[in-house]
Specification:
about 250 residues; alpha/beta
């Protein structure tokens, strides 16, 4: 069995790491370069860096900041935000990314996933999906959760996989920042259906939430932000408790 991955997420706005609740009310969480170094030293398995306003503000991810972060770490590094074409991904790869994450641009032009997978390989392509329940359906949202679509989340994930996504980063907007736990029922439905790794995101507030998401859904990885940024959960402590629950994680 592959070891489960613990992934801190750096949501970056104006060169600073920020965190909100349900994608709004953002507050400062520190320097992304310092945080990246700290997480690498703590034993995080990977990092995700999302330039959360790049698409909304119609600009590219900050390549220089990406280079600065990449110089500080020795773990895999996924970068997303404002990636609309092959050239964007190529620039980020050259800046130090191991993988790129696409979200809104892929929904608007699904062929982008095919193009990225063909150009770089499926292992390079993470499709991030922001989902929120509307009525009795989970629907995809764009531009950092600002724009609702009529696209069913489950159907979109299956399409993304068929087009060459190497991983799905699934964020529940209803759970994001609430610290009430992951959306385990929907995560299990998705993970039981797709054949590629699923990263759970949105809702981590305690070590038990990580135990629950791995035990109840069997996802490959769990991502969190504020509980790590503000020191509420330390990664070495988290991994120790996961091992006590017979959940395999990588050594520090």
């Amino acid at each position: 069995m592959l070891a489960k991955r613990i992934i801190p997420c750096l949501d970056v706005k104006d060169g600073r790491t920020v965190k909100g609740v349900n994608f709004v009310d953002l507050r400062d969480a520190g320097d992304p370069v310092e945080l990246a170094w700290n997480y690498s030293a703590q034993g995080a398995d990977e990092l995700v860096f999302l330039d959360i306003t790049a698409t909304h503000e119609r600009r590219k991810t900050m390549v220089e900041l990406v280079k600065a972060v990449a110089r500080q770490i020795n773990i895999p590094f996924t970068i997303g935000g404002g990636i609309n074409e092959i050239a964007d991904a190529d620039a980020l790869l050259n800046a130090g990314a191991d993988k790129i994450s696409v979200n809104s641009a892929a929904v608007r032009d699904p062929a982008l996933i095919d193009e990225l997978a063909k150009a770089f390989g499926v292992q390079f392509v993470v499709v991030a999906v922001d989902t929120r329940r509307v009525g009795n359906k989970n629907l995809v949202h764009l531009n950092g959760g600002r724009i609702a679509t009529e696209k069913a989340t489950f159907d979109w994930i299956l399409e993304a996989e068929s087009r060459g996504a190497g991983e799905i980063l699934l964020t529940s907007m209803d759970h994001d920042g609430t610290k009430g736990g992951f959306d385990n029922s929907f995560l299990k439905q998705v993970n039981d259906t797709v054949h590629i790794p699923v990263i759970a995101s949105g809702g981590a507030g305690s070590v038990q939430h990580f135990v629950d998401v791995f035990e109840h859904t069997n996802v490959d990885a769990a991502l969190a932000a504020s509980v790590f940024h503000y020191g509420e959960i330390l990664i070495p402590d988290l991994k120790a408790i996961l091992r006590q629950h017979h959940i395999e994680v990588r050594e520090l």
